[in-house]
Amino acid sequence: MSLLVVGSLALDTVETPFGSVQDALGGSAMYISTVASYFVTPVRMVGVVGGDFPKSAIEFLESRHVDTEGLQIIEKEKTFRWGGRYHYDLNARDTLFTELNVFEKFNPVIPESYKSSTYVCLGNIDPVLQRRVVEQLHKPRLVVGDTMNFWIDRRYEELKKTLERMDILIINDSEARLLAQEPNLIRASRKILKMGPKVIIIKKGEHGALLFTEKTFFSAPAFPLENIYDPTGAGDTFAGGFIGWIARTDDLSEENLRRAVIYGSTLASFCVERFSLERFKELSYLEIQDRFHEFRRLTNFDDLTLS
Ligand code: AMP
Description:
The protein has 307 residues and is α/β, with parallel strands linked by helices. It is 35% helix and 25% strand.
């Protein structure tokens, strides 16, 4: 099955208690495409970068069989940049700066060969751009989307229109509260389900993820790790693992959505082990499978009723 990914490609400056990086590779489309490419190839990518975007990053995407025909390179402008700082509680981060640069004037143009994509993942970018992408497509089977506080604060009304075009929303806990204006996550998810998506997945950082449909509920832990260096991109990585698995299996049953959540969590656990996308430069499919099976053991228990 074919998968189209749109989102940001970024140069990130990140500080964690364990180190820092400057102008490291990042962005929602960068993480989602890289990760989904473990499950389905080629991943079709739509995005924009400036002349300062490293050639080695494009070569890396190509080595992962990501199709970059939909990537615009605006030589005279600068790539999107984001800066963030994490504290000892890695679930909370401060955004230090967001420089939209090439995204200020970006108009996503979907190549003809991408228009019939079956699966679509709208990575975190301006919701107006997310919607422009969907409007150019010929009836995709499933549209999955993500957003963040930056856009909820600045583009609330536009985001609501974009949510009507999404089948599944993947969002983190604080953003779900912000979007729904509701502190309780169960009530927040019910409110968001009324905004358009039929399924909502709430990511809770090191506390796992929740999957809600109108009638069902699934809770998955995060994979316990001793060494976490950089949580940047974990949410996008989750989305990439989730949609990658769905596109590979072409199965939208509840059981398979649950499996996809576990794949998302499995991939996110690799992401945080190194800075930026470093871990994916060496990660093998076999390692993903091993950790997925370990996840199964971790969450498995017998339902023995004591008499
Ligand atoms: P995550 O940690 O999964 O929430 O995603 C972090 C990535 O999101 C970083 O690589 C940033 O470059 C990217 N990012 C941060 N802010 C924005 C924004 N406002 N729009 C698009 N991408 C962003």
